[in-house]
Amino acid sequence: MNLVPVPGDLGLQVARALEEDVGSGDLTAALVPATTQGRARVIARESAILCGIPYVEAVFARLDPSVALRWHAGEGAAVAANQPLFEVQGPARALLTGERTALNFLQLLSATATAAHAYAERLEGTACRVLDTRKTIPGLRSAQKYAVRVGGGQNHRIGLFDGILIKENHIVAAGSIERAVAAARASASRVPVEVEVESLDELRQAIAAGADIALLDDFPLETLAQAVALNRGAARPLKLEASGGVTLDTVRAIADTGVDYVSVGSITKNVRAIDLSMRFEWPS
Q1: In the 8-state DSSP scheme, what is residue 12?
Q2: How confident is the model at residue 217 (pLDDT cuts 50, 70, 90)?
Q3: pTM of the model
Q4: For residues 135 and 92, what is the distance between their CA atoms, to the nearest angstrom?
């Protein structure tokens, strides 16, 4: 059973997706008599982690509440190539109109969950966890971050409003890491303060300044291990996040250095939609 909470803006995202596709009406579906009933079956053409069931259901419910769906796999389940995912039946017009939007959500979110799952699998047996980033498809951030969690990953900050990440330009503008962290602590925000560092010296400064997390940007493995050792010796150790050019081939070695997190932008930015097929059956 999937226990990941559904995003609060799911309905809004579905409404916007249908609005951009349907507009003032589906001119082609209107050629089908309004009384015609239909049935369709969706199958996976490749293995994946299934994600997006609440979105698919919301698409068809918005078009016609009488549409009925029957799922053969649950949210977060591993599915195989040629495996049936669900059957849908109801007014033919609603099925035809909703097909593309429903599959768009299911293909994208399953792809995101599948990518996150692949990284999470590589980290099994370690204390390290894979994080997403803000490199998401505009307008679909909450949906993709939901899919990351379904796939076994964790979310970094959702946006600029729920976490402070002090990067190079912020440090330059503030005058130093110490000043930037002090400004963050003095603000009304009570959120984690993270500092992106590019050297062990900058990590020392982040520790001394009292940051909560250090983002180790493009550190070689040897330097990551040194950073972990340095941090462990601190009076108040930080959480350490490794980032930059992480791949499935390198993520385990990065985790084995002892960092707490590895952030991977590609799990939301470079996803390739899962191949699905929707096959219709019409009454004779």
Answers
A1: H
A2: very high
A3: 0.95
A4: 37
Paired tokens of 115: 């990518």
List pLDDT tens digits, range 56-103.
Answer: 999 999 999 999 999 999 999 999 999 999 999 999 999 999 999 999
Asked if 218 and 246 count as a contact pair (C-beta separation under 8 A), the reply is no
Token couple for 81: 């190539």
Catalytic residues: 100, 135, 167, 196, 217
Find the radius of gyration of the CA atoms of the chain: 23
Token pair listed for 160: 């600029």
Mean pLDDT, all residues of the chain: 96
**What would the two tokens of residue 267 be?**
């799990």
CA 142 to CA 229: how far, in whole Å? 36
Average pLDDT of 37-47?
97
**Residue ranges of the alpha helices (H) in 34-91?**
53-63
- Taking the C-alpha atoms of residue 165 and residue 242, their distance in angstroms, rounded to an integer, is 14
Does the CA dihedral 11-15-21-22 come out positive or negative? positive
Q: Which amino acid is at 89?
A: Q
**C-alpha distances out from residue 51 to 2, 114, 138, Å:** 10, 9, 19
CA-angle at 104, arms to 58 and 143, nearest 5°:
65
Residue 77, C-beta contacts closer than 8 angstroms, at least 6 positions apart: 49, 50
What angle (nearest 5°) sits at the alpha carbon of residue 57, between those of residues 37 and 89? 15
Give me the sign of the Cα torsion angle 164, 165, 168, 169: negative
The span from the CA of 67 to the CA of 16, in Å, is 20
Tell me the per-residue pLDDT of 55-67, one tens digit each, with 9 for 90 and over: 999 999 999 999 9
Residues with Cβ within 8 Å of 81's Cβ and at least 6 positions away in sequence, in order, are: 44, 45, 46, 47
